[in-house]
Amino acid sequence: MALLSASPKWPTLPEYVRDWALVDVETSGLRPGRDRVLSLAVVTLDGQGRRTGEFSTLLDPGCDPGPVHVHGLTRARLAGAPTFEEIAPQVGALLSSRVLVAHNAQFDYDFLAHEFARVRSWVPVSNRLCTLALNRLVAPATPDLKLGTLAAHYGVRQERAHDAQDDVRVLAGILRGSLDAAERLGLSLPLLSCPPRQDFKPYVPKTPCAYRNPGRLHEGGPLVQGMKVAVTGETGMAREELVARSVAAGLNMMTTVSGQTSVLVTNDPSEGTTKLRRAVAEGVPLVDERTYLRLLDGVRPGQAKGATRPGAPDRPRAAATPAPPQLPAQRAAASPARTASAGADRPLAGRRVLVLGGTHEEAAAERARAVGLGASAAVNLSASVTDVVLLPGGESDRRMSRIGLLGLPVHDANRFLRAPGPAPAAESQSQPLSEDAEASEPRDTAEVLVRGAVVDLPDTAGQWTVAATWGQLATCEVDVVAFVVDAQEQVAGDEDFVFYGAPEHPDGTVRLAVGGPTEQAVDVHLERLPLEANRVVIAAAIDGEATFSDIGAVEILATCGVGEAPTARATLDAATTERSMILAEIYRRGDGWRLRAVGQGYDHALADLARNYGVDVAD
Fold this sequence. Notes:
By secondary structure, this protein is an alpha/beta fold. It has four domains: 14-193, 2-Layer Sandwich (Nucleotidyltransferase, domain 5), CATH 3.30.420.10; 228-296, BRCT domain (Rossmann fold); 352-439, BRCT domain (Rossmann fold, 3-Layer(aba) Sandwich); 447-612, Lipoxygenase-1 (Sandwich). Helices cover 22% and strands 23% of the residues. The strands form five sheets. Strands 3-2-1-4-5-6 form a six-stranded mixed sheet, with helices on both faces. A six-stranded mixed sheet has the order 15-24-23-17-21-20. Strand 25 (580-589) and strand 26 (592-602) form a beta hairpin. It is globular and about 80 Å long. The model is unreliable at 1-5, 308-343 and 421-440 (pLDDT under 50).
């Protein structure tokens, strides 16, 4: 199915006519606020795609340039380059009043925001557009969505990968082709609002503790390295100094109290703080500051996290007992690992089906049937959609006009999804794709998971991303979150709850990324997760009184690496009247990791979901 013209044209619809600032940065690492920008390029375009300005420069970061083998920027090459402070006014003028565009835009935007914050300024843009997120909506016929792959697809010559100046030139061609494809599909652009001011602070990492938690402090006993210690209320010693001395002694200083806390330091047990109430409820020992300082002088050696416990496996395995019934991570939907090719009864394998019309329950049932026959279910009209199933009321969907222009086959669900084999042409309202057209496009190699299905993650050394996408017709806001939990399905501390207010775990292992109004993702570095982290639970919650029946289906994609082809996908329709839903979980299995598509909904809001996992949420 050819949805792209041979020569993409700059779109003319008002939504697509904007002033653009295309940006690419090369950096000394992957952590905004900790790492620095080494090279920057900006190209500005007007609403008709004409170039109106450009700027590029190397930068002196004042630090080690990091992976030279990737970007080729050595200390010698950067010597004598300007600092960001020197070029900030010029860059700010180019960005001002324009939509910032980048491939994986959150990365470039966050680095710029931190660089501007260092010179006491802010990124002067109000919206950004990610071409990676845009192409996930478009779903072009490409094996992946990397910058070089999309350049070839849209007919743009790439000369020097990881060179900011060449990358931003390539980005201009990709933007043109992507906008042309999006206009043909009738897609709304995934523009993301950016706060008018970014008060970013320099990255201050939480010092990771190198020792296992030995458990609770016993009365009369010593402190042991690895114990989790929390402090509440006023202290005689400056809190910063008390924490620094504790960390230096090998203790794990926590900002919250949980069932895993070893001891709470307080000078006033009657103060009634949230930490104290939680400590009393959990039976956590209390000591005053004077006693704690005395114990701090005699901390006993602990067991290093890398060491193996006698008689224990090198890495913890998944909990053998199910979670208590009141916890969100119920295992009722669990099933053995399966693959997309399992079973010979998959006549719709390789097809991508969009269901229009019907009630939420009816549409959910049709999508489930499509997946059961081997197809994947789409939540938006995209270039990868091969078939449309029409339920009552679907003919009035505004996408039907585009579907007609694109010549997509429109089917009656009663025949298409219940037939023993692929629907013959006579059963469609329009002709299905020809064999030649289907063969000309790469098949989706992602494993299609039904609710509760499991897939092994083949690469545990890279960064895994679980992205959630929902229909562009949704009118309510959805927040994707993550919980890093232990074998008892509880967080070790509130920092193990990653959400819009705290979008990155202090140690950088789990991070929330936002691609647009209808796409959010959770990035997980599996290899760097601590041994006590047994599971990463990924959930979504509705902001307000709306429910998931108002949102419709939610699609999740699991990918290893930015722009790579997805390893697995699932379309979740389980929630109807619920306001929160467990989307997926990544969990340990022996020495490896697995992904489970969950789709378990709950009537309560995000705060209640977080409390069930042990997060201390203020009333």
